[in-house]
Amino acid sequence: MRSRGISTGAIIGIVVAVIVIVAVAVAVLYMYKPSPKPATAPGFVIPISEFTPQNVYSSSFAQTFCSKVGNVTITVWNTYSPSENQAFNASLASFEQMYPCIHVEVTYGVGIATSNFISAAKAGQAPIVYRDTSDDAGKLFAAGLLLNLSEYLSPSVFEQYLPTARENFYLNTTTAHGYYGLPDNINYIVMFYNKQYITSPPNTTDQLINMCLQVNSTYNVWCIAYGTGSEWGYRFAAWFAGFGGQIFGPNNMPMLNSSAMVNALEFWYNLTYGLHINAPDMNPSLEGQLFTSGKAAIIFDGPWDLGTYFKALGCNLGAAPLPVVSQTGLHATPLIGSTGWVIASPQASGATPQQLEAALVFILYMTGPQADLNLWNYAHDIPANIQAYNQAISQLNAGQLSPSCLNGIMEGIFEQAQYGQKFPNIPAMAYYWPAFHQYATAYFANQTTAQAAAQGMEQYMLQQMSQSSG
Amino acid sequence: MDPLQNLNRVLTQYLYLLPIIAIALFLFLYPVAYAIYISFTNFNLYHLFRYAFIGLKVYEQILSSGTFYTLLLNTVIWTVGSLVSMVVVGFLLALVLNQRDIRGRNVFFTLLLVPWAFPAYISLVIWSGMWNYEYGIVNKFLGLFGVPPINWLTFANTAWAALILTNLWLSFPYYTAVFLSSLQSIPSELYDIATVDGASAWQKFTRITLPLMRSAIAFVSVGGFVFTWNNFYPIYILTGGGPGISTDILIVYTYQEAFSYGYYNIAAAYSVISTIILAIMALMMLRVGRVLEVIT
Amino acid sequence: MSNRYSLRYKLINWIRLGISYIVLAIVAAIAVFPIYYIIITSINPIPTLASISLRTLLPESPSLEAYYYIVFKEPFLLWLRNSLILATGTIAITVVVAFITGAALSRLNIAGKRALMITIYVMTFFPFAATALPLYLMFASLHLLNSYIGLILAYSGGTAIFSSYLVKIFIDRIPRDYEEAALIDGLTRPGAFFRVLLPMARPIIAFVALMAFLGAYTDYALANAFITSGSMWTLTLGMYYLAFVNRATLYNVLAAFSVLMGIPIFAVFIAFQRYLVQIYAMGGVKA
Questions:
Q1: DSSP-assigned states of every residue in A359-395
Q2: How many domains, chain C?
């Protein structure tokens, strides 16, 4: 048999292989028939005009809702931190009491901006309700994975939120335009400092440098713990703006290749490797450790970590807006973003119209004045709901926070809100992070000049933008 | 034999292979086929439900960008650098341990096994703290010898050194064990005869030891090459591919493309290219080392 | 004359041995050091990485508070339970598949088996990053995502193939006489496999079980892609979160976590090292 060239063994092997390949092709084709088109008409039983935050909190509306809609179950992916979850659970309890017909299946501990949402959407099993950051959700909205809330809620609903917060959840591009989420907080970084080393916060970068040189030599601790060498650009955007730059210019084209970027990069390189007032080789975890153990005087972080820092430093903790860049006279303006609740499009979640109605009620409730105030009370998240926000401010002004030094800290945090920049939520923003990370890390590793880095960043973004439109 | 009986026998035999074929089918062939398919489309986050066939555009894009060649070079540096160091160190240690008059060989061997015994994922988390510039224990030790602190993971050259050294620490026990076992299976009479014939130590090494070890070296080299090429964790945990993409290798980049940016089609195309290159190199190495005869 | 020769010979031997012992000692120290480092860090009061210095390598007021914290204040036990469930499931499937396949490949003269095994082996070269999504979609359509089964299957697939091959070459070295005798005595072929071969293949089965356990226990990437709910997190996901994402983790707590997660496996390896050496040296020796 062998002398014939092909042995029986090989023939059988080939036959088996062919059968296997055919079987797999059939399986692949079977699993990928195109998904059915979603129903175009909403099929709602409650008129759209009745979905308002006031109604959602009224028991008469709740009763009408339950009698008309009946029993319905919604799936929710919860991305809150433990302290925020205390607030969420309290709000959830009162929600379930008011709406006994809506059964909420909560999945706790989901990572924020998780890629699992996209995989689940592709499988048609995305959760009906999801809490996400405004920029990541913007990406999802542009990809058609989220419900366009402008089509389901009247415009007056959105007026109930702070302008910055609601604009964060508004997108206007060729493929998608409308509101795609309801915000429950606004967030941005501030300058936290340790009062043991810094008695009054610096107003300008020159003051910052002088203070830092003193702190370094007097106390032998790092003045600043800021991992510029491993940054992805979220915090750095503030300094970029402080030196006069902006991420996107007219027509939503990236404008990273500017002298502002060069100056900002060189400024931080100088502080780290020239003046040695900023600790090198940091990552967020290590920065936090240094700050909480008193080995660093200043950290740039947001109020979401306030609990950790306050527990460690107590009333020695101070918060202040980022300083003004002395060279330009401009404030370093951090990105003011929002986190909020979104609803997956029916194609992604397979939701029925009744489930969508329940979802709308849920997110209106969770971003309403009472629930938002809960978040403030338990976790000190800055509320996005105007009513809750005003209440928080009046609490602060009356010095009602306890312990009393917390009032001063929160005032510092709120002050930063006056000097912030809008968080771009167009899909192209997703390319800013890898573009910045790749070239900034290369610059800090002495592999390229600041000019080349700025140029490289912009080219990277342009390239990705043209790729994705194809 | 009667053809029907033959067929019956073959079918029964393939019944035993059914589990592995089912696994290969559903858990390997189907995902790979799917990935190959979408590498020819524009399937990504923005074309999640409706996507179109675009032919070789993705491949053209990849092969014409500088990124691919950087990644390929990095992957080769990583794989060859790790493999050469592991094989050399493993072999030398095996030679040292194999000496007849070493006392406490078992104790030393057990101690040497420690890096391999402790789960690699955890070791990597530990090492990432040890390489830190300011607070890492490595720099503190070097400080004892008067060496100024090195910013290991922030700069490309030192990052490669740190990566390869860490990988060496993680895997050298395996190579030592294989080579030691192989050395011990060489009958000592061969050496005795050679000594009587007046051979020097070097001649004994090159004429007896090396040739008899060839299959062991080839076998672990091929296995190690394939494993290291696709070894995701050390680079992901220690440097994340940075600075820039100077320590990024194909598999880490592919993971980022898929999970961070949602570019499933690009990730799939990279995977296809990487697998083809790896398969060719593995096949070449198998041929050269004539390992196939050993395993089948 | 013979005196001088033997003296020189003794001197060379002495130097050779001396260098050998020094080399072995240094290498052993380097090999063991990180484990010692993490153990000592877990019992010393070291809140941050910045507290590490050469002095902290010696015990200074050791305490177990880091262990207390990680076990009771973080969901360590939950993560451990999830990891163990996944690992046990993977072991079960992998061992069964690997044994059946390995025995069949070794003992049965199956046509085309070499081509089949090589093709399957080459398929495992494909990076998991691209296969994760289709696997996810497949499990989603089978509604296996919210249970452990999806991940268990994915892990089993990964280890079963290489394990089958290992079982095959191990069984190759067991003489066929025992089964031949059993077959003559009237046992069926599968009976021969399970009653005769299986007990003799215990070392390799144990090794395969260990590899399967490790594959499931130390995986981060696939777990990250498949697991969404915090209540299903494994130890690796928990460790990544505590080490790189959460800013409040104390370094000695992370060290305690590492020790608790790693020492059991480490102990198993060391206890069975004789077996292990036999086995992973198998492939390297000429038959």
A1: HHHHHHHHTSHHHHHHHHHHH-PBP-BHHHHHHHHHH
A2: 2
Domain with CATH 3.40.190.10 in chain A: 48-186+337-393, 190-333+428-469
Q: Which domains are seen in chain B, by residue range?
A: 63-295 (1.10.3720.10)
In a domain, C68, yes or no: no
What token pair was written down for B153? 């993971």
For residue B29, which residues of chain A lie inside 8 Å, CB to CB?
20-21, 24
Q: Tell me the chain C residues in contact with residue A120 when contact means C-beta distances shorter than 8 Å.
A: 140, 145, 228
Q: Are residues C162 and C274 in the same domain?
A: yes
For residue C94, what are its two tokens?
């992998």
C117 and B296 within 8 Å at the Cβ level: the answer is yes
Indicate whether C40 and C181 sit together in one domain: no
C137 and C201 housed in the same domain:
yes
Beta bridge partners of A298: A193, A224
Crossing angle of helices A405-416 and A386-397, rounded to 10°: 130
Q: Residue A129 and residue B253: Cα distance in Å, rounded?
A: 31
The CATH architecture that domain A48-186+337-393 belongs to is 3-Layer(aba) Sandwich (3.40)
| CA–CA gap between residue A52 and residue A277 (Å, rounded) | 52
- What does the alpha-carbon distance between residue C59 and residue C63 come to, in Å, rounded to a whole number? 10
Q: Is A12 an interface residue toward C (CB < 8 Å)? A: yes
Question: C134: Cβ–Cβ under 8 A, 6 or more apart, which residues?
Answer: B30, B31, B34, B35
Per-residue pLDDT of chain C (287 residues; tens, 9 = 90+): 456 678 888 888 888 888 999 999 999 999 999 999 999 999 988 888 888 888 888 888 888 888 988 888 888 999 999 999 999 999 999 999 999 888 888 888 777 778 888 888 888 888 888 888 888 888 888 888 778 888 999 999 888 888 888 888 888 888 888 888 888 887 777 777 787 888 888 888 888 898 899 889 999 988 988 988 888 999 999 999 888 888 778 888 999 999 999 988 888 888 877 777 676 666 543 33
Which chains does B contact via 3+ CB–CB distances below 8 A?
A: A, C
SS3 assignment, position C229: coil
Please give the residue range of the domain that contains residue C36: 2-63
Answer yes or no: do C52 and C148 share one domain.
no
Query: Residues of B with CB below 8 A from C134's CB?
Result: 30-31, 34-35
Rounded to a whole number of angstroms, the distance from the CA of A151 to the nearest CA of chain B is: 21
CA A368 – CA A54 distance, rounded (Å): 8
Burial of A408 (0-12, 13-18, 19+ CB in 10 A): middle
Neighbours of B48 (CB within 10 A): 21
Residues of C in contact with B91 (CB under 8 A): none
Domain check: are C174 and C228 in the same one?
A: yes
Across the interface, do C140 and A125 touch by the CB < 8 Å criterion? yes
- Cα(A191)–Cα(A321) distance, rounded to whole angstroms? 6
Q: Which of B30, B46, B262 minimises the CB distance to A24?
A: B30
ipTM over 0.90: no
Q: Say whether both C158 and C32 belong to one domain.
A: no
| Domain stops at, among C40, C63, C86 | C63
CA distance A346 to chain B (A): 12
Q: Which residues contact B36 (CB under 8 A, 6 or more apart)?
A: B268, B272
- Angle of helix C113-123 relative to helix B3-23, nearest 10 degrees, comes to 10
Is C178 in the same domain as C91?
A: yes
Q: Are C143 and C107 members of one domain?
A: yes
Among B34, B50, B154, most A C-beta atoms within 10 A, so best to mutate, is B154
CATH superfamily of A190-333+428-469: Periplasmic binding protein-like II (3.40.190.10)
In terms of Cβ atoms closer than 10 Å to its own Cβ (0-12, 13-18, 19+), residue C115 is middle
